Amino acid sequence: MAEYKQNSRRIEGRTGITHTLEGLMNRRALITAVVGDDESQTYATAVLAVFPDRERLVLDELTPEEGHQRLIEEKHIRCHALLDGIRTSFSSQLVHHDSKDGISYYVLAYPERIFYEQKREDYRVRVARELRSAVRIEERVEGQVHDLSLGGLGILFPGHSHFHTGEILMNATIILPNKRTIQCDLEVRHQSEVPELNKKRVGCRFLRLEPPARREIQRCVLYLEREEIKRAPKR
User: Fold this and answer.
1) Staple 143 to which of 39, 76, 155, 233, CB 3.0 to 4.6 Å?
2) Over the Cα atoms of the chain, what is R_g?
């Protein structure tokens, strides 16, 4: 999970870095972290506090818990998150660590820069075959999640299914690949045949997505990214 340097922009001034870090903190954005150079293992955390005058930020305890000792030993951490539908990435160094009420936290140096993608909400992560989950359109038809983004998803339906571009699919029940369930309306944007699977891929846009459902989708996108890393060939 390298920093998004290709097709991305970067923030380098303290004001911009502070604004981004505070955005991650205020939205309680889930952060996927890589410690040291080992990308085969990722950890979950969140920004707890930002101190612009001291150029420090505080991260919550890493989970799984073995990430705690690794960060103390390695010192270097790379963080990846979605902020308002934009993928962001930054690196930092551990300054010191402590705990409160039995929960560890980490004080980090301000990153020198933050990378972010220029395109909003259109980054789609592919769902591995074994993780494909169900989408039900009322009593009409059932499909499988093929790819997912904050803005929409691709669904594999049986090849004989028929949809119209612009059609609104009401009350769709989506079981996300991380086993969480959301309900929303979908707008059909495009469709294409997948003859080798005897399926039809239908690209849909989320409509009137409630904040809790949006957070579930964000968590799922990060979950799928972690699964991609686990499946990547070891270097």
Assistant:
1) 155
2) 20
Task: Centre a 10 Å sphere on the Cβ of residue 63 and count the other Cβ atoms it contains.
Answer: 12
β-partners of residue 142 are 136
In this predicted structure, what is the pLDDT of residue 225? 78
Distances (CA, A) of 47 to 20, 27, 56, 76, 212: 11, 9, 11, 16, 19
Q: Which residues of the chain have pLDDT under 50?
A: 1-6, 120-121, 235
DSSP reduced 3-state for 174:
strand
Instruction: Retrieve residue 174's tokens.
Output: 């989506």
Domains in the chain, start-ordered, CATH in brackets? 8-117 (2.30.110.10), 125-231 (2.40.10.220)
- Alpha carbon separation from 15 to 21, 48, 72, 83, 193 (Å, rounded): 10, 18, 28, 17, 48
Residue 23, H or E segment: helix 14-26
Over residues 97-107, the pLDDT tens digits come to 999 999 999 99
The CA distance from 122 to 149, in Å, is: 6
- Residue identified by tokens 């992560």 is 125
Q: Parallel, antiparallel, or unpaired for β 31-35 and 181-194?
A: unpaired
Alpha carbons 137 and 142: distance in angstroms, whole number:
6
